[in-house]
Every structure is written in C-alpha cells, then in structure tokens.
Amino acid sequence: MGDSDDRWYYCLKHNRPEQGKRCWFADRMGPYPDRATAERALEIVRERNAREDARDGKD
Fold it and tell me: Among 7, 38, 52, 55, which residue's beta carbon has the most beta carbons within 10 A?
C-alpha cells in the first residue's frame, strides 16, 4: 500500500475536512468514510466524551 489516501480527515490545524493525509498526523482526526462525517468530527468527539463521562458517573 502506498501513500495514496482518498479517505476524509478533519484537520485541527485548518479547522476543516480534508481528503487524504495532507497534514501532519497529530493535526488530523479520522479517517472518516465521507466528507459529511468528517465535517462532524468535533461533534462526534463531544458526543462520545459525554457518553463516556455519563457512563463513568462524571458531569
């Protein structure tokens, strides 16, 4: 497998979804199956954290 990657990521540096591994790995979240999901990356993380906090009994 080469460096070719057409999957979607959310770039924390540029605050936007990007296709492929354009930015440094520490600056991106993903991969995501499509642009729409990558656009929701921060929302998805907030939802997961809230679920885990509730499960752990945290506010």
Answer: 38
